[in-house]
Amino acid sequence: GEDVEQSLFLSVREGDSSVINCTYTDSSSTYLYWYKQEPGAGLQLLTYIFSNMDMKQDQRLTVLLNKKDKHLSLRIADTQTGDSAIYFCAERASGTYKYIFGTGTRLKVLA
Amino acid sequence: DTEVTQTPKHLVMGMTNKKSLKCEQHMGHRAMYWYKQKAKKPPELMFVYSYEKLSINESVPSRFSPECPNSSLLNLHLHALQPEDSALYLCASSQDVGQEGPNTEAFFGQGTRLTVV
């Protein structure tokens, strides 16, 4: 199937780390993305990883990829109230245009 | 410039109206996309244009008609819509996937919030 699964909701305290998880389906060469969507807005690309990588770090963001389990995670260090949003993971098979989005995780950061 | 611009931001239309959504990018991207997003749901792909030719149509009803007049512009013409078509319509663009590399991620616009009454 084409389901990309995420947990629906995550609540953390300001300054803590957040970990958002995603399970994807395509086992072929794949790009995996994390997007952020604030209320009423479009999708903002945060970071991406190719399936031949295990980890990618970009400032406060760390992406971990477990290819065996088809599990992707996004860790946000020192979470701020401005990080409150819905986070979508997405997969795209190499050579295709079709992005398949996860169900989205709503992150709420408590002050 | 990594901006995808969509107009209008909000649109209210009747079921007998004809309207168009517009999308523009100046990143030199040769792939452009229309997505539909209902509240609390992920975006769903509608259409993909590659080099100004329709590449993917995800079985979208004919009351939605896409058009790509040039490599920077993408339109979505709307006619005889139904209330259930009310949603956020997102445009995106990316490099051509035939040139896979670190820059093939899709950039999204802010969307048009469409309400059909």
Q: What's a concise summary of this model?
A:
Chain A has 111 residues and is mostly beta strands. Chain A has strands spanning 5-6, 9-13, 18-23, 30-37, 43-50, 55-58, 61-66, 71-76, 85-93, 100-101, 105-110.
Describe this structure in words.
The complex is a heterodimer of chains A (111) and B (117). With 111 residues, chain A is mainly beta. Chain A has strands at residues 5-6, 9-13, 18-23, 30-37, 43-50, 55-58, 61-66, 71-76, 85-93, 100-101, 105-110. In chain A, strands 2, 4, 5, 9, 10 and 11 form a 6-stranded mixed beta sheet that branches. In chain A, strands 1-3-8-7-6 form a 5-stranded antiparallel beta sheet, with no helix packed on it. In chain A, strand 6 (55-58) and strand 7 (61-66) form a beta hairpin. Chain A is globular. Chain B is mostly beta strands and 117 residues long. Chain B has no helices and 11 strands. In chain B, strands 2, 4, 5, 6, 9, 10 and 11 form a 7-stranded mixed beta sheet that branches. A 4-stranded antiparallel beta sheet of chain B has the order 1-3-8-7, with no helix packed on it. Chain B starts with a strand and ends with a strand. The A-B interface holds A 31, 33, 35, 40-45, 48, 88, 94-99, 101-104 and B 4, 6, 31, 33, 40-43, 45, 48, 50, 55-56, 90, 92, 94, 97-98, 100, 104-111, 113.
- Range of strand content of chain A: over 45%
Distance between the termini of chain B: 36 Å
Order of helices and strands of chain A: EEEEEEEEEEE
Give the fraction of residues assigned to helices of chain B: under 10%
Radius of gyration computed on alpha carbons of chain B: 14 Å
Bin the strand percentage of chain B. Answer: over 45%
Main β-sheet description of chain A: 6 strands, mixed
Q: Unreliable stretches of chain A, pLDDT < 50, 5 or more residues?
A: none
The counted number of beta strands of chain B is 11
This entry's quaternary arrangement is heterodimer
SSE class of chain B: mainly beta
